[in-house]
Amino acid sequence: METAQIKDYQRETTLAKQRLSIAAGVVVLMFCGLFFRVWFLQVYEYERFETLSNDNRIRLQSVSPARGEIFDRNGRLLAENKPVYSVEILPSQVDDMDALLNQIARLIHLDEQSVESFLEQVRSRPSFESQTLKLALSEAEVARYAVHQHKLNGSSLEVQVVRNYPYGEETAHSVGYVGRISQDDLAEIDREAYRGIRYIGRLGIEGMYEEQLRGKIGFEQVETTAHGRSVRVLESESPINGEDLILGLDIDLQIMARQALGDYRGSIVALDPTSGDVLAFVSNPVYDPNLFVNGISQENYGKLRDSLDRPLLNRALNGRYAPGSTIKGLVGLAALEYGISPASTEICPGWYSLPGSSQRYRCWRHAGHGSVTLQSAIAQSCDVYFYSVAQQLGIDYLHGFLTEFGLGRRTGIDLHNEPTGLVPSKEWKERARDEVWYPGETVITGIGQGYMLVTPIQLAVMTATLANNGTRVAPRLVTAVRAADHETVQELPILIKQQVNLSDPGSMSIISDAMQEVTHGERGTARAIGADALYRMAGKSGTAQVIGIAQDEKYDADKIPERLRDHALFVAYAPVENPKIAVVVIVENGGSGSGVAAPIARAVMDQYFANQSNEVITNETDTRVAIAQ
Amino acid sequence: MRAESRSHLDAPLMVFLIMLCLSSLFILYSATGENDGAMLRQVIRILLSFAVLAVVAQISPQTWHRWSPWVYIIGSTLLVGVLILGIVGKGAQRWLDLGFFRFQPSELMKLWVPMMVAWVVSRRPLPLSIPMTCLVLIVVMLPVGLVLLQPDLGTAILIAVSGLVIVILAGLRWRYMLGALICVAVAAPYLWTYLHEYQQRRILTLIDPWSDPLGAGYHTIQSMIAIGSGGSRGKGWMAGSQSQLEFIPERSTDFIFSVFAEEFGLMGVGALLAIYMCIVFRALMIAYAAQDTWSRLLAGSLSLTFFFYVFVNIGMVSGMLPVVGVPLPLISYGGTSMVTLMFGFGILMSIHSHQSLMNH
Q1: Interface residue B178 vs chain A (CB under 8 A)
Q2: ipTM of the complex as predicted
Q3: What is the CA radius of gyration of chain B?
């Protein structure tokens, strides 16, 4: 028994030792396996993992440039980059988003729509990307938030730069506005150029000069953690800030002009005739462009879009009106160029009819003007004289001449989507309407009625070209570009679109004299505004029908609904010796051009000259200033 | 021999363990981001673990042998208790809170199971008969099943291995082992359906971690990038971008090896593996020299289980094995496994020193 047990014990010991030896061998093999595996990763596949490791830690971040700012001619800031406080939320650090939003909503005002769009961003973007919950907190909100911030994990107060228009609605139609880059934009723009840029110019100067204002983005190679937090910058390329734009606009004149327009819908454009600088660019009513910068609410947008007054319409650029009598000066010039003598007379019995036709074209003055010359016809705005002139010149001659002065064609102003307007011709009517041209249509074209449609900026260009002796200059809002270093200022060249060469250069001064008679003459339609002026101006009133008035029917403003009343127009330039400003005023449904529009034009010119250093006027009109004083 | 007999500590094993613990502190300083508090806690844990080792080594193997069935029964009972508390507390439950002290009964089962299995096996002459094998399997699978119910796959596997290793060391016939392997292979598809979905995904991503680089494969991929980008010389202490920039998940616990490999490279890994190999071989020598079957089987199980730990962890972080929650022994941050491991080394030393005494 004993020996058996000992034998068993020895057998057991041998067996276990044998197994332990085998196990030791297996352990050695497995250690080799581990070592081989690590060797495989660290030596054989080293380069691959080295690359992956660097891809992991190094991230290319864009650094956005500051958008160029926009100034008026006197250096007043019209579009700026304004730092504001915003509440940012890092979704990856938020456990319960609803609870957090509820907490924040107790401290600062959150509207439903912005919360919606915030949540949309959170859903569509990576969770380590911070999203803006609310921009531009009020001071009270900042204070309340700051007190409770320690309880609001995952949210933080940040300073963000937003685009701001200090003059708001005054510059809506000229400077325009930027908007946040949307998903739709991303499909169209060069994504690389906009990486890290928040805004894109949408309208006005902001849209037109997007390239210059945007600048060039810079890059930073940063080492980031797995959670996207930057640890240090490895390499960087600085962004190049956008260029500043300097406008010809005089913001004081702009504000005053819109005030002068009061509650009327309408437009005022003032140009420097020689340079084309836009001094004032008014379209009334207006809207606040700041609403659009960070996304306008559906409600606000609906209000603007559906308003009967159409505040979103840029009347100065896109409003198309019958020019009415405002083009009589130009038609008179066409008559002189055609060869009609300024001394020849026409009898105005109060109406005009074509030979062999019973159709009567009425003069605004039913009693008639009697015998009129070119000059008195312009001064008194006799329709019959111009019916006759138009009939003699024919539509094609008129079309050609008017077009040379910028009517019916794009002026070349630095804004997008400028319409051409319309100066009719036989060829146009056949092409557009497939109809023959009727002689009667020529007659009414002579007084700016019928098919003819012009924009305020076109009328301003026409007026400026008359003031500038036939040199038609493209109007421009931006006069100079200042590089981001704030030192090099590049003046933009004046763009001459056309030089009208008259067979008799003296014709120009005949028309100028006639248009001075309008404002200064004894029987001038707008003599009321010229009477006490310190400078001499040339002008022409106009009244454009909104509805057709039947033959022999009398126009009675009181009987017609307000929106169907005539548009009141006035064009003018001054001082006549060396014109510095050309003004167009269009008052929708204002009624009388000379009664309503002319005083506004006068007020604009007064303001302009009052703001100019006095030398401008005194140099050229010293005698009159002396007398007046 | 005299000094050794007085302290009951094994000098070579002590040296290797201390080297390992120092390496642990060194790499943890980097992996925890120079967190002094964490370092202090780890130092305290190490000292506590060595104290446990020293105490355990004083107790004679005979005493441990006597206690084997009782600690096994108490441990299994506590596992049931934990499960009941878990059901009451509605959620995964691994801890038992004794008010002043919280511990994981499953952790100590890594010791009680091999002790019990060795106790059962050594009662009958070897090699194992078939009924004995079945009895042993029941002894192993009961606690494994209870731990799986928690559920804690990593610990369950380690407990199972610690028991089954003894069966193999006890001379289970090769044909039985072959048969068991075939059985497992046949049963595998069936067992597959029993795995949690996340466990299935871990195994699937092992086959191709790049199929889901931001999801289930993320941990493995980032860990492999860390190891691979370390190269032969490493990126330098505290200079591993994968670890310092937080790309490695669980970098101070389960994935500490990735940090080590990234910062010290293949040379560092070679040194670390050498220390591990020395420990395992010293432990196997103790088993080899053991005087009775119980001691020999238990010592063999403790050494091989320790190696298994190392193999599973490094295999996991280097993308060879599925991700199971097994820390790198004595290097990973955390105390529970460290105390258990040192407890095991204490028993090993006790076996070694006490039989030396008997020899004298």
Answers
A1: no
A2: 0.92
A3: 21
